[in-house]
C-alpha cells in the first residue's frame, strides 16, 4: 500500500520534472509574419566590399540566461546590432545542460532568423540542430565555447586557447613566487568544450621544464554552481594537504573559491588565480586573497561575434581562412584556420588596475 | 535494599531495563541516521585524517546548515501530507532581494536586511499556503507552479544583475564566517531554528495537530482540528524559513544572481526523506530532517576528499543515499519488532 503510493508519488514527481524541463524561458514566440529575407544570398564567393545589410534578424543564444558573463556579452551584441541597424533578440535556457539549447536553435530556424550567435553548452549535442538550421539558410557563429566545426560557420574565440591556458599557468607560477608545489584545477562542468581545451593546454605547459616545480594533482568540477564549487574547493584542500595553488578558469568557480579561502584558515596559505570578472573579484584582490586573475572583455566578444554574423549574412565573408572584414570599433579581423577568429590576448587584473574596469 | 532481592525477582529489573532502553531508542528515532553518518565519517577520517580537522568539521556543518534549515520548514509541511517544492526559488528570490537591499543601502543595519529576507519568504509562503489551504489545490501542483513563478520573478527583477562580495557590507559577509566559541554563527542560527521547531512540533497543541492532519486528514477534520489554518501556517513557516535561509545564503556565498539555489528543493526533499520523515505525512522529526541534510552534505564532501573521480561522484552519492535509507529502515524494523516483543511479554497491561 505505502510502497505503491510511494511509487505513484515518484511517478508524479518525475513526470512533473520532465514537464518542467520543457518549460524554459523563451522570450519570443514564433514570429510567423517574418519573411524569409533571402537567407541563401551569401552562398558562393565572398565579396569583401559588400555593404552590411540593414534589418538583419539575429538571435543571441547564451549558455544560460541570467548568467552575468553572458549578460555583459549580450550588451555588446546589442550594441553591435544597433550600430548596423540589425534586430538582436536574446533568448536561451535557464540551465547550462548539454541539450538545453536545442529547442532554441530549432525555434530560431523556424522564425527564419538570418543568423544565430551562440555559446555552445556541448559541442556535439547542438550540432544536429545547428546543421539543420544552416540548411534552412541561417548563418551560425559560435563564441566563447565552440560547437563541432562542421556545424557552424565561424567561431569567435575570446583569446587563443594557447594564450589562456599558458597565461593561467604563468599566473599561478608567479603567485607561488618560484617556490612551486602542488596545484589543482577547479573547472566548470566536465563536458564544457572551452574548459577542457584550456586544461589540455595547461597540462602541456606544466610539462615544460620551467614549470617542473608545479605538480597538478587534481581537476575538480564545480558545475558553475556556488555551492558545489565551495564544496569542491574544500575537498581539494582536504584531499591534498600540500596544495599550494588553485587555478579556476571559470567565473563562478574562481569567485566561490576566493570567497571560501577568504573565510577559512587557508587564507594567505593557498594561492588562487583563474578567469573572473573584475566586479566579482574586486574584494578578494583588494584584501589580498587573490593576487591576479585574467579575463577578456565579454562585451567585446559579443560585439565581434555579432559583427561576424552580419558579415556572413551580408556575403562579406564565407568563413574561409584569410578572409577579412571590419568589425566596427574593433577594427579589421582575419578569419583563421577552421573558421576561427581570435578577439585578442586576455587582460590580467591586479590590485593596481582593477579599479579601471566595471563589468 | 538490593541485598534482599531474590533470584526470581531479578528477572523484573532486567526486563524493565530492556524496555527503558527500547523506549529511549524509540525516542531517538534519528539513531539510524547517526549510525549512517558514522559509517561515512569514520572510514573517510581513517583514509584522510584532515577530514575531521576543526576547519573541515566547521565546513561540513556550514555546508549542511542551509539545506538543514530548508529541511526543517519542509518537515512541517510534509508531516501534514503536503510538499513544498518552491523552497529553492523562495531562497533565490529572498537571497537576491536581500543582497540588492543591503548593497543599495550600505547604511542599513544587517538585522533589517535579514528581516527583509525573512519577510520576502513569508510572503511567498502565504501565497503557497493560501492556494493549498483556501484554494484546495494539491500542494505538489501549487508549489511546482510557484517554483517557476518565484524564479521567474527573480529573473525579471534581477535582469541579469549579479551582486558581488565587493558590493555587500562587510558586516554581513563577516556574519557568514563569524564564530561564537568556535561554532559558526550560521550553524548556531540553524540549531536554534531546529530547536524551536522541534519543541513546537513535540510539545505544542498546534504542532501535534500537524501530525494528526498528516495521519488522517478526514479524522482530523472530525476531531475539530482547524485543518486549513494549520496547513496554511505550515506553508507560511516553510516560506519564512526559506527566506531566512536566503539571507544566510548571501552572508555565506557573497555572490548572488537570480540563479541562487536552483534545484535545491530536491536536495531538501531528499534530506527530509533520509531523515526518516514519512513522505505521506504523519510522522518524522525536524531533528531527523536536519541530520538527513548533514548526512547528504557529508557524503558529497567525503567523496571529494577520498578523490573519487568527478564523473562517478553523483552515482556513488545516490547509491550511498540508498544505503543510508536501508540502514535506517532496518534499524526501525528491528526496533518495532523489539517493541512488539516487549508488549507481548507484558501481556497487554498497557495500550
Describe the protein in words.
- The complex is a heterodimer of chains A (359) and B (351).
- Chain A is α/β, with parallel strands linked by helices.
- Chain A contains ten helices and 14 strands.
- Chain A is elongated, with a radius of gyration of 22 Å.
- Chain B has one domain: Orthogonal Bundle (ABC transporter involved in vitamin B12 uptake, BtuC), CATH 1.10.3470.
- In chain B, 74% of the residues lie in helices and 1% in strands.
- Chain B has a two-stranded antiparallel sheet with strand order 1-2.
- Chain B is globular, with a radius of gyration of 22 Å.
- The relative contact order of chain B is 0.18.
Globular, elongated, flat, extended or rod-shaped: what is the shape of chain A? elongated
Q: In total, how many beta strands of chain A? A: 14
Largest sheet of chain B: 2 strands, antiparallel
Determine the N-to-C terminus distance of chain B: 31 Å
**Strand composition percent of chain B:** under 5%
The count of β-strands of chain B is: 2
Order of helices and strands of chain B: HHHHHHHEEHHHHHHH
Principal-axes geometry of chain B comes out as globular
Per CATH, what is the topology of the largest domain in chain A?
Rossmann fold
Q: Unreliable runs of chain A, pLDDT <50, ≥5 residues?
A: 6-43
GO molecular function, one term (chain B): transmembrane transporter activity
Subunit structure (chain B): The complex is composed of two ATP-binding proteins (LsrA), two transmembrane proteins (LsrC and LsrD) and a solute-binding protein (LsrB).
Organism (chain B): Labedaea rhizosphaerae
Subcellular location (chain B): Cell membrane
Task: Kindly summarize this structure in a few lines.
With 359 residues, chain A is α/β, with parallel strands linked by helices. Chain A has helices at residues 2-22, 68-83, 102-110, 127-135, 161-175, 193-206, 226-239, 251-262, 278-286, 298-313; strands at residues 57-61, 87-90, 115-118, 139-143, 154-157, 181-187, 214-221, 243-248, 271-274, 292-295, 324-326, 332-334, 340-342, 347-350.
Amino acid at each position: 500500500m505505502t510502497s505503491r503510493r510511494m511509487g505513484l508519488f515518484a511517478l508524479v514527481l518525475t513526470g512533473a520534472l520532465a514537464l518542467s524541463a520543457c518549460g524554459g524561458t523563451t522570450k519570443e514566440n514564433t514570429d510567423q509574419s517574418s519573411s524569409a529575407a533571402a537567407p541563401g544570398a551569401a552562398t558562393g564567393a565572398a565579396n569583401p566590399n559588400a555593404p552590411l545589410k540593414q534589418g538583419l534578424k539575429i538571435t543571441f543564444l547564451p549558455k544560460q540566461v541570467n548568467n552575468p558573463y553572458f549578460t555583459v556579452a549580450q550588451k555588446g551584441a546589442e550594441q553591435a546590432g544597433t550600430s548596423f541597424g540589425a534586430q538582436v533578440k536574446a533568448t536561451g535556457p535557464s540551465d547550462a545542460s548539454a541539450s538545453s539549447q536545442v529547442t532554441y536553435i530549432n525555434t530560431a530556424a523556424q522564425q527564419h532568423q538570418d543568423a544565430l550567435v551562440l555559446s555552445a553548452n556541448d559541442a556535439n549535442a547542438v550540432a544536429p540542430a545547428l546543421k539543420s538550421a544552416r540548411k534552412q539558410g541561417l548563418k551560425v557563429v559560435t563564441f566563447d565555447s565552440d560547437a563541432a566545426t562542421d556545424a557552424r560557420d565561424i567561431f569567435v574565440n575570446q583569446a587563443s586557447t594557447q594564450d589562456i591556458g599558458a597565461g593561467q599557468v604563468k599566473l599561478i607560477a608567479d603567485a607561488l613566487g618560484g617556490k612551486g608545489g602542488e596545484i589543482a584545477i577547479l573547472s566548470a562542468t566536465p563536458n564544457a568544450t572551452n574548459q577542457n581545451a584550456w586544461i589540455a593546454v595547461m597540462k602541456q605547459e606544466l610539462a615544460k621544464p620551467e614549470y617542473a616545480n608545479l605538480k597538478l594533482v587534481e581537476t575538480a568540477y564545480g558545475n558553475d554552481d556556488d555551492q558545489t564549487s565551495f564544496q569542491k574547493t574544500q575537498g581539494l584542500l582536504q584531499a591534498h594537504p600540500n596544495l599550494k595553488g588553485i587555478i579556476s578558469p571559470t567565473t563562478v568557480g574562481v569567485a566561490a573559491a576566493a570567497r571560501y579561502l577568504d573565510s577559512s584558515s587557508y587564507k594567505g596559505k593557498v594561492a588562487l588565480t583563474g578567469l573572473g570578472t573584475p566586479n566579482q573579484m574586486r574584494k578578494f584582490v583588494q584584501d589580498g586573497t587573490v593576487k591576479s586573475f585574467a579575463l577578456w572583455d565579454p562585451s567585446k566578444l559579443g560585439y565581434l561575434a555579432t559583427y561576424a554574423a552580419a558579415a556572413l549574412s551580408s556575403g562579406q565573408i564565407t568563413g574561409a581562412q584569410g578572409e577579412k572584414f571590419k568589425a566596427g570599433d574593433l577594427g579589421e579581423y582575419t578569419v583563421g584556420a577552421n573558421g576561427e577568429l581570435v578577439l585578442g590576448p586576455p587582460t590580467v587584473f591586479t590590485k593596481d588596475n582593477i579599479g579601471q574596469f566595471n563589468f | 535494599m538490593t541485598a534482599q532481592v531474590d533470584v526470581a525477582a531479578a528477572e523484573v529489573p532486567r526486563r524493565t531495563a530492556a524496555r527503558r532502553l527500547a523506549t529511549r531508542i524509540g525516542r531517538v528515532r534519528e539513531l539510524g541516521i547517526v549510525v549512517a553518518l558514522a559509517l561515512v565519517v569514520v572510514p573517510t577520517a581513517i583514509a584522510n585524517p584532515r577530514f575531521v580537522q576543526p576547519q573541515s568539521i566547521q565546513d561540513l556543518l556550514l555546508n549542511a546548515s542551509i539545506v538543514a534549515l530548508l529541511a526543517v520548514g519542509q518537515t512541517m509541511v510534509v508531516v501534514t501530507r503536503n510538499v513544498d517544492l518552491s523552497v529553492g526559488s523562495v531562497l533565490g528570490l529572498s537571497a537576491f532581494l536581500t543582497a540588492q537591499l543591503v548593497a543599495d543601502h550600505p547604511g542599513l543595519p544587517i538585522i533589517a536586511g535579514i528581516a527583509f529576507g525573512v519577510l520576502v519568504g513569508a510572503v511567498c509562503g502565504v501565497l503557497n499556503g493560501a492556494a493549498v489551504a483556501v484554494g484546495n489545490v494539491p500542494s505538489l501542483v501549487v508549489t511546482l507552479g510557484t517554483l517557476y513563478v518565484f524564479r521567474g520573478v527573480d529573473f525579471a527583477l534581477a535582469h541579469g544583475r549579479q551582486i558581488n562580495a565587493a558590493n555587500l557590507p562587510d558586516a554581513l559577509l563577516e556574519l557568514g564566517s563569524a564564530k561564537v566559541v568556535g561554532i559558526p554563527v550560521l550553524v548556531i542560527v540553524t540549531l536554534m531554528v531546529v530547536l524551536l521547531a522541534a519543541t513546537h512540533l513535540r510539545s505544542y497543541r498546534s504542532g501535534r495537530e500537524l501530525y494528526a492532519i498528516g495521519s488522517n486528514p478526514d479524522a482530523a477534520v472530525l476531531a475539530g482540528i482547524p485543518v486549513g489554518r494549520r496547513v496554511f501556517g505550515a506553508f507560511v513557516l516553510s516560506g519564512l524559513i526559506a527566506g531566512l535561509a536566503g539571507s544566510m545564503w548571501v552572508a555565506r556565498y557573497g555572490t548572488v544572481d537570480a540563479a541562487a539555489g536552483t534545484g535545491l528543493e530536491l536536495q531538501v526533499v531528499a534530506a527530509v526523506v533520509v531523515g526518516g520523515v514519512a513522505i505521506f505525512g504523519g510522522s518524522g522529526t525536524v531533528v531527523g530532517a536536519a541530520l538527513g541534510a548533514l548526512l547528504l552534505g557529508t557524503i558529497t564532501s567525503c567523496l571529494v576528499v577520498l578523490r573519487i573521480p568527478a564523473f562517478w561522484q553523483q552515482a556513488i552519492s545516490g547509491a550511498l543515499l540508498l544505503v543510508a535509507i536501508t540502514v535506517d529502515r532496518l534499524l526501525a524494523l528491528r526496533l518495532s519488532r523489539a517493541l512488539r516483543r516487549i508488549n507481548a511479554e507484558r501481556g497487554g497491561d498497557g495500550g
